[in-house]
Amino acid sequence: MSAPQTTTDEPVGTPPADPPARRRPTLRPRDGSHARDYGPGFFVKLALMAVVDALGVYVVWSAWQAGSYGVLVASLALLVAANWVYFSRRALPLKYILPGLAFLLVFQIFVVAYTGYVAFTNYGTGHNGTKEQAVSALLVQNERRVEGSPSVPLTVVADGDELGFAVLTEGGDVEVGSADQPLTAADGASVEDDRVTEVPGWTVLPRDQVLQRQGEVTELRVPVSEDPEDGSIRTTDARTGYVYTSSLEWDEAADTMTDTTTGTVYTPNDEGQFEAADGTTLAVGWRVPVGLDNFATAFTDSRYAEPFLKILVWTFVFAVGSVATTFLLGLFLAITFNDTRMRGRKFYRTLMILPYAIPGFLAALLWSGLLNTRFGYINTVLLGGAEIPWLTDPWLAKLAVLGVNLWLGFPYMFLICTGALQSLPSDVMEAAKIDGAGRWRTWKSITLPLLLIATAPLLISSFAFNFNNFTLIYMLTGGGPRFADASVPLGHTDILISMVYSISGVDGSAAKDFGLASALSIVIFLIVGTISALAFRTTRKFEEIS
Which of 14, 245, 264, 495 could staple 315 via S-S, CB 3.0–4.6 A? Predict the structure, then answer.
């Protein structure tokens, strides 16, 4: 008896069904909403956000430690926004926009806002911090050795790069401290022959290292206690310490500073300084708002107003001249090498862009050496030993600046003019030829207008760049030669941005005046912004007419 046959709905010869594809693990919420995909992309995003969060927490903590609460709030806000954007499905467009917005906030908006704030203050030499910091600095800077105070054996110690003093008190105890840490008892310290030889947590510096850091050692002040009026320990030979106390006495309740040696009382004035009844002031002050005083100084004080007008005129000449010369030379070369009848055009075009491939600051330094009066290649070789003062005569220095900038800038104009010429519509050119227009007529009425429409925005940006071309001026001439009648370190080839740099005092050539430098920066911004806006408006009109 045969076994019963089973029936199936599948036709004979049908291959077995494929096993179900393995799916990535998903987690479906209990409320039945869309399941979250935990694929590789999710974990990559999680790792990147972990790095961003770690960096953000570090910045926030550093701002908290430094007391920069504005930076702290901004960093915390950016950190929270980044986490919300990149872990939310509702903020997809912001995932691409947020990095640009963050950089715009940090490097543009914050910088402009802070510059505007500084422009209305007296921030500069003698006014670098708050009033509390000024008081502390005055007390420290006016320290004198206490008469009759005993000397104490002293040893120079270090904790990493931080120096400190270990002293042996009259009672035989060892105390150690640094500029930021008052003297405290050092348990477990070793003493031999009335000299501290070992301090836990500190490294005793050998004599050769003490000599190498002699300047730091003699300038170091270690507070005796938390009370500034108790003075500090200082040394002149790195072996013996003396107690120094300030000759000034700060009365916080009365808001006065008194010189204990003369009895002179100083009170705060409106300019952020302690001033006596006879008008004398103490050297260190603090930042205070000064309104429009910095702008008034820039335009009314003869020390700045006269050089400012000369530099303003030269800045316009330099910016306009640089754009005009580089554009004309670049356009001429572009037309020349765009002619199909010329052989080796690719090779010549490559040679033309070589100056553009050299960093601007390096090229300016090279030209500074080539134009040296006595040892430069141009004078000694090309001109047969002539001593032409290319960089020390006012007019020749300006000519040299324009010439070097022409050499640096024409490759850029050559590139954009070549691209603009090659993109001109050929049908328009053919129509001009059919109408009987000659080469000059075609160039004047068709080629040049279309070329200017394409290059006008780039010419405006080139003007703005050259208006603030600090690198060329600083590396080539340093702003010199100097004005003979100016009391500030400014020269004939200085432009406004290099003038701002010199007035700021960052290079050490003058007292720091960040408030005045910021005010001049705002003036430069207004000038460039106004000219650029007018130029773009004119460009749009030109497009409509054409």
Answer: 495
